[in-house]
Specification:
CATH superfamily of the largest domain: P-loop containing nucleotide triphosphate hydrolases
Number of domains: 2
CATH architecture of the largest domain: 3-Layer(aba) Sandwich
Strand content: 5-15%
Order of helices and strands: HHHHHHHHHEHEHHHEHEHEHEEEE
Radius of gyration: 25 Å
Number of strands: 9
Shape: globular
Length: 401
């Protein structure tokens, strides 16, 4: 096996994975069918299977080296060769090579085409090969009309927040990018946990990426919300016998929720995407946007790149992204916020499909959930009550303004 590593990007990718350089990102981006070499495909498939099972990338080299003779020889070659290519470049080059190979195959079909139908079919295949990110092709309006009637006969199922008034005016779909913003101590984490519980009860697989708060503290809030515990009792370790009985009563219900909580401190959008794909998430919650590790020379540029990355994550993976964000307003201001208070970057306003702002008017003891941007519906204000003692939110019985 005398292969040029920098030219053979299949071998390069295996080498990068064995060195744990972008391993999880590679496996989130590349399917085993994209490897043309049978031995490389088998090695990659075994490593990806283990990654999908454990989420750990550090022992993948051992998996490869413990295979049959041919695979082991290939793995040793990968392990012993210095690779300097960045994982992003290797993935891009592999996909580019596959497109070129598909195009050559189409060209061969054209050379032997015997009819216009053969030519048009080859043309269609070439378009699909060169525009591999495009999942849909243009459709005639008569076909779209048939699909339209099918949709209205079977109404589309949206991802509900679990709050009836909020769900009446918001239509969250797979692949949407949702911003949940508020000032410090406005209840963002508590509201996101409440939403997650309600979505999980609908059967959606939810993953909570916490970049600021320890996993056990997030889980404490989840149990407090679900059971209705006195949060101060839990924090002080002074739960009553009645509260402990309540936890026991709901133990199995909580354990059965399709929820995972991950410490994502210092992680990047690419890492979050890889984990979300590995865990087959339907909805991910990120607490919060400003703490995601991103490239940029300024704070504005870093937040802009993060917002663009999360928007792309949602669109390309079909995973719904709910990301918490801080509002920054003048000290002492008690006015109701708007999305322009997302001052770290105007890109957030542009990228989000839905922006929900939380507002706690402490002077008048009022709490509001503001639908500030809504691509699929109305905007407005819903009155809520926040029971901080039990980490629970309740809609107030009045009209949507």
């Amino acid at each position: 096996m005398n292969e040029n590593f920098e030219a053979n990007y299949e071998t390069t990718l295996i080498g990068l994975i064995m060195m744990d350089k972008g391993a999880s990102q590679i496996m989130a981006e590349v399917d085993e069918t994209e490897f043309s070499s049978p031995v490389a495909r088998r090695v990659y498939s075994a490593m990806k299977k283990e990654w999908s099972r454990s989420g750990d990338t550090k022992g993948l080299g051992i998996i490869a080296l413990s295979m049959q003779a041919e695979e082991k020889e290939y793995a040793f070659l990968c392990a012993d060769t210095l690779v300097t290519t960045e994982w992003q470049v290797a993935v891009e080059k592999l996909k580019e090579r596959n497109i070129i190979e598909q195009a050559k195959s189409v060209a061969s079909d054209l050379l032997v085409a015997q009819s216009l139908e053969n030519v048009l079919e080859a043309q269609s295949n070439l378009i699909r090969a060169t525009q591999h990110e495009v999942k849909e092709v243009a459709q005639d309006v008569d076909d779209l009309m048939v699909q339209f009637y099918s949709r209205i006969d079977s109404p589309k199922k949206h991802i509900k927040t679990g709050y009836s008034k909020l769900d009446k005016y918001t239509f969250i779909d797979k692949g949407d990018f949702v911003i949940l913003a508020g000032e410090q101590s406005a209840g963002k984490t508590a509201f996101s946990i409440s939403m997650m519980i309600r979505m999980a009860k609908q059967g959606y697989k939810c993953v909570y990426f916490s970049l600021e708060t320890a996993v056990d503290k997030i889980f404490d809030r989840l149990v407090t919300n679900y059971v209705g515990l006195d949060f101060s009792h839990l924090k002080r370790g002074e739960l009553s016998a009645e509260e402990i009985d309540g936890i026991a009563e709901h133990h199995q219900e909580i354990a059965d929720l399709p929820i995972k909580i991950i410490n994502a401190s210092g992680k990047t959008v690419d890492w979050i995407k890889a984990e979300a794909i590995r865990l087959h998430a339907d909805v991910i919650f990120i607490d919060y946007l400003g703490l995601i590790n991103a490239k940029g020379k300024s704070r504005y540029e870093m937040v802009t790149n993060t917002s663009l990355g999360l928007h792309t994550l949602a669109q390309t993976s079909g995973i719904t992204v709910v990301c918490l964000s801080q509002l920054k307003r003048p000290d002492g201001s008690n006015r109701m916020p708007n999305m322009h208070d997302l001052r770290e970057s105007g890109q957030i306003e542009a990228d989000a499909d839905l922006i929900i702002l939380l507002y706690n008017d402490k002077e008048n003891n009022e709490y509001s959930v503001i639908v500030e941007k809504n691509k699929e519906g109305e905007t407005g204000i819903i009155d809520f009550r926040f029971d901080g003692l039990h980490q629970q939110f309740f809609e107030v019985a009045n009209e949507y303004a």
